[in-house]
Amino acid sequence: MAAELGRTDRQVRLTVTDLDPVMARAARQRLAHLPHVVVHQADATRLPYKDGSFDAVTSFLMLHHVIEWESAVSEASRVLRPGGMFLGYDLVASRVASLVHLVDRSPHRLIERGTLEPVLARAGLQAVTVQYSLRGLVLRFAARKPRPPQPGGGAIESTSPATGQVRP
Fold first, then answer.
1. Which run of H or E residues covers position 71?
2. Of 3.40.50.1860, 3.40.605.10, 3.40.50.720, 3.40.50.150, which CATH number belongs to 52-147?
3. Nearest of 52, 51, 53, 46 to residue 38 by alpha carbon
4. What is the spatial distance between Cα 17 and Cα 8, in angstroms, rounded to a whole number?
5. Is residue 87 a contact partner of residue 58, using CB atoms and an 8 Å limit?
6. Structural contact between residues 67 and 109, judged by C-beta atoms closer than 8 angstroms
7. Composition bias, kind Polar residues: at what positions (predicted)?
8. What's residue 20's pLDDT?
9. Which phi and psi (to 5°) does residue 69 adopt?
10. Is 76 in contact with 86 (CB distance < 8 Å)?
């Protein structure tokens, strides 16, 4: 995904992360020809970036490999700028997904249907779309970090001509 985005849009600065140093090194080598792409070894539950550093955070078949994936969602929210998007897809808990991970022996905690939405909300993200596809085996999502209210952009008030009272 990063290689294709980096190849097609050289105006976008990309930061790619992976917890596994071998995978991070492989990504660094694979993306070395793209000067606007950097690769860091990083833990998705403790990202080494300042609050509000990114316009978008993506997650492609990664969350279920993070045992505490709720913390990774919170970190995605933390590093997003207001108005930024958290986008991705992942596997949903199913017999098929469990068997795949039993065979490959990778650490995982599959996402149960309906559990992502409240986690997004607790992380301060507004779900734009959460879709289950491929017979419910795959979860696709898009969530936005809200922008703070603008000064003077709060509730509209008016004054009743009859009583002089302020009404919301």
1. helix 69-79
2. 3.40.50.150
3. 53
4. 20
5. yes
6. yes
7. 157-168
8. 94
9. -65, -25
10. yes
